[in-house]
Amino acid sequence: MEWKKGFILGVLSGVLWGWLALGWRLLAGDAPLENSLPHNLAAFSTGGALFGVVIGGFMVALRDRICQNPYLKAALLSLGLWGLLRIGGEVLSAMNPERYCSTMDETSLGFVLALAMGLILGMMWNAQNRVASNE
Predict the structure, then answer these.
(1) Which letter does DSSP use for residue 34 in this model?
(2) pTM value surpassing 0.90
(3) In whole angstroms, how large is the CA radius of gyration of the chain?
(4) pLDDT above 90: percentage of residues in the chain
(5) How big is the CA angle at 77 (ends 2 and 65), to the nearest 5 degrees?
(6) In sequence order, what DSSP letters do the residues of 5-70 get, joined into one string?
(7) Which of 10, 24, 25, 113 has most Cβ atoms within 10 angstroms of its Cβ?
(8) 3-class SS at 123?
(9) Cβ neighbours around 108 below 10 Å, total
(10) Where are any strands of DSSP class E within the chain?
C-alpha cells in the first residue's frame, strides 16, 4: 500500500510542480517557450509527474532512513535528484559545449524549483498521513 501512496502522491505533486515551473517560465519571460501552451502544459506535466514519481518512490523505499519529517525528507530527496541531474548536465556540457551551456540563473532556478517540488510532495505526504491517522 505504501508504494501506491508514493506513486499517487508523487504523480500529483509532480504535475502541480510542473504547472508551477511552467507558470514561472511564462511570468518571468526570460526564455521564450519553444512550442504552444497546450504542448508545453503536457510536457511540463509529464516531466513533473516523472520527477515526482521518482521522489515518491524514494520516499517509500527509504522510509525512516533519512528522517521522519516528510517535508525535510522530500526536500532532501528532490534536491539530491536535482543535483545528480545537474552533474549529468555538466558532464554533457564538457562533452559537447556547443550544445549545452549551463548558466548560474538556470542553476539557481533549478535549485529553487527542486526545493519547491520537495515541499509540495512533503505537504501532500503530511496531509495524507493526517487523514490516514484520523480514520
Answers:
(1) S
(2) no
(3) 16
(4) 52
(5) 60
(6) HHHHHHHHHHHHHHHHHHHHHHHH-SS--SS-HHHHHHHHHHHHHHHHHHHHHHHHHHTTSS-S-H
(7) 10
(8) helix
(9) 10
(10) none
